[in-house]
Amino acid sequence: MSGERTVTWRLLNLELGLDEPESVLRGRACRELGLEPDQLRGFRFARKTLDARRRGGGRAPRFVVHADLMLDEGREPERLTRALRSGRVIPAPLPGSLEADVLHPSLAGPGRRAVVVGCGPAGVFSALPLALAGIRVTLIERGSSLERRSRELVRFHRTRVPDPESNLLFGEGGAGTYSDGKLATRVDDALEVPILEELVAAGASDTILYESGAHIGTDRLHDLLPRLRARLEACGVEFSFNTRFEGLDLEESDAGRRVRAVATSAGELPCDLAVLATGHSARDSWARMVEQGLPVEAKPFQLGVRVEHPQELIDEGLHGRDEALRRLGAASYRLVCKPGEGLPGAHSFCMCPGGRIVASVNEPGLLCTNGMSNSTHSSVWANAAIVTTFGPREFGAGALAGVEFQRRLEERFFAEGGADYTAPAQRVPDFLDGRASTKELRSSYPFGVRPGRLDELLAGPVRRTLARALSRFDRRLAGFAGPQGLLVGLESRSSGPVRVRRERGAALVQGFDNLLCVGEGAGFAGGIMSAALDGARSALSLIRQGVRG
Ligand SMILES: Cc1cc2nc3c(=O)[nH]c(=O)nc-3n(C[C@H](O)[C@H](O)[C@H](O)COP(=O)(O)OP(=O)(O)OC[C@H]3O[C@@H](n4cnc5c(N)ncnc54)[C@H](O)[C@@H]3O)c2cc1C
């Protein structure tokens, strides 16, 4: 009955056959809970996961779906009440909002100004709530707007000379602009839905709202980013590309140190609030933060190599001859090797089915790899990082010791590849046996690969950890450590080596009155969604508390 209050219940673990249309689930949910279809005021998927595990009895792979059902309050049938008691149904968590419900009086006045540095997910999703709260936001980005950035990247691939300001890591959209666009978060956060809804409104498929392991793909990301920018501009955010953050103009106040203005390559920008969202590769920005006395400390980061196989080998290993699974498209894996035999654990990360390896480079003379793919996952190659955690105990003391360690290793990989962005590569069996690969090596990596001693370039414990993991992964996925597996290096920036300390229980940088450091560069995120969430959460928490004025 319209006008009544509705309540949303989440029905867990509905099963859907791989060949069944999603539309059957509405009726299935109603039958299970004893509802007439016209009692439903709304129905949507909350989560859809592929369960491809084959258990005893030869159970077929299927999707497992959590669905949200909206009903008039107080009209729940007996069967639903019973399902609630058994735990099969739970109250659906309330989605959050990017708009602040409470605006601190110190922010309510006109002319409040924030400067956000970095146009990656953390910068964009901290700028949006600030703008929605009526604060005038200038978003500065050292790299170029998307269109120009893509032309600059084409030039890099042609000339092999990277532009240190605008490249695969720097520019509109941030480091994930040329990626698989995977949106995994692994945390349940009320802000996840509103962020995903912004991406859907900008053109992403609405399946990202519920598919676990959803990905957008580079091609679709490139359609989406200009629309996301237009959305922010409509809320009043001013974008300033090709503008570099160079430091903070600071003053002392009773409440701590206070940012008066942000110094940029285009002059000073006075502000009431500064947000640094500079990502995992702005090494000059970290150095400046340390110089200016920000509480920066070293943290462990992921270190390893990229592994590449023909996608067919991965499909065969994971889906075998199951036609229904094969129809789902390029198979992807997530492999974990627990610690043991005196060695730390290792895992696969950022797997790109039907993708390619990219040179994740922003500085001349350094080599680092990563992976990307388009929405169709249509290349014949599958790649992923195989990484282990490497901490201050291994690379030494000092806030930027991890950064220096990364740099030295990236220099060695660059030299081993021939100092022109060709990447050193080694077949997995050769890596395990400690010898150079001899036969012709093939890879999706655009600058080409040549035989190199990855086993010698990596320190002993890292090499042994990766070798152990590769052998174990071969037991899970036949051929993983066979001659068709190629290691390409180096993978050194899967996560940042630095953390900026925050006030206990608050988002503000420790000792500062009006400064936020968010996302991967602050050490509080490791992917697109986690960076976006950290940016949005930090901005909202500050808006609600108010910037001290
Ligand atoms: C090739 C590749 C593929 C990836 N694939 C995935 C994936 O599929 N899924 C996933 O979850 N994650 C992926 N990642 C990781 C993901 O991109 C990052 O975790 C995420 O972008 C971090 O967001 P961020 O906003 O914190 O930083 P970033 O996205 O790095 O954004 C920081 C921005 O700040 C700008 N900046 C830096 N210094 C300055 C300065 N001094 N002045 C002005 N601007 C500055 C940079 O130019 C950059 O645009 C991938 C990364 C790469 C490189």
C-alpha geometry: globular
Write down the Rg: 25 Å
Average pLDDT number:
93
Bound compounds, each kind once, are: flavin-adenine dinucleotide
Number of helices: 16
For the record, what is the CATH homologous superfamily label of the largest domain? Answer: FAD/NAD(P)-binding domain
CATH topology of the largest domain: FAD/NAD(P)-binding domain
Low-confidence stretches: none
CATH architecture annotation name of the largest domain: 3-Layer(bba) Sandwich
The number of domains: 3
Q: What percent of the residues sit in helical stretches (DSSP H or I)?
A: 25-40%
Give the strand content. 15-25%
Could you name the CATH class of the largest domain?
A: Alpha Beta
Describe this structure in words.
This protein has helices at 24-33, 78-86, 105-108, 121-132, 146-159, 192-201, 218-234, 283-291, 311-319, 323-327, 392-395, 401-416, 428-433, 454-457, 460-476, 528-545; strands at 6-17, 42-51, 62-72, 89-91, 113-117, 136-140, 238-240, 245-253, 256-264, 267-270, 273-276, 296-298, 301-310, 336-337, 346-352, 356-359, 369-372, 381-390, 423-427, 449-451, 486-491, 498-500, 515-517. The chain has 549 residues and is of the alpha+beta class. The chain folds into three domains: 6-91, Alpha-Beta Plaits; 105-298 and 496-545, FAD/NAD(P)-binding domain (3-Layer(bba) Sandwich), CATH 3.50.50.60; 301-491, no CATH class. The chain starts with 5 loop residues before the first strand and ends with a helix. The mean pLDDT is 93. Flavin-adenine dinucleotide binds next to helix 4, strand 17 and helix 16. Flavin-adenine dinucleotide (FAD) is lined by residues 117-123, 140-143, 169-171, 174-176, 178-182, 244-245, 277-280, 282, 285, 350, 358, 360, 370, 372, 519-521, 525-529, 531.
